[in-house]
Amino acid sequence: xxxxxxxxxxxxxxxxxxxxxxxxxxxxxxxxxxxxxxxxxxxxxxxxxxxxxxxxxxxxxxxxxxxxxxxxxxxxxxxxxxxxxxxxxxxxxxxxxxxxxxxxxxxxxxxxxxxxxxxxxxxxxxxxxxxxxxxxxxxxxxxxxxxxxxx
Length: 151
Prior knowledge:
By secondary structure, this protein is mainly beta. The protein has one helix at about 35-40, and strands spanning about 1-5, 15-20, 25, 45-50, 60, 65-70, 75-95, 100-115, 120-130, 140.
């Protein structure tokens, strides 16, 4: 099944990361120099995903999202946790020992999550989630200003 992870009615915004200055510039789409930002190899232009986190912060490409969820129906797991990086483009997911037919084009979050068990053990695994399924998540940083979040 092909899914489109885009919202055609969303606001178009950009911010930029300067590798040279190690600085994030916001609202660059409103500047006279927007095209120069796009052409500069030292600058990474990041698009707004059209979504906000649970506290109302705008979500951009390269942001790191975090979540914690308690499970009342599962007697073996206390809570599920994870974090991932917001990306935009073509995606597909592999499910277990076979290739899923799930693939698409648009906004998604890729990372790892797991379960913290009552006995103290932790099980982790990789995940891929479309941005539409990320309600209630929290922006905890981005891969440029906070690279330690994805190590």
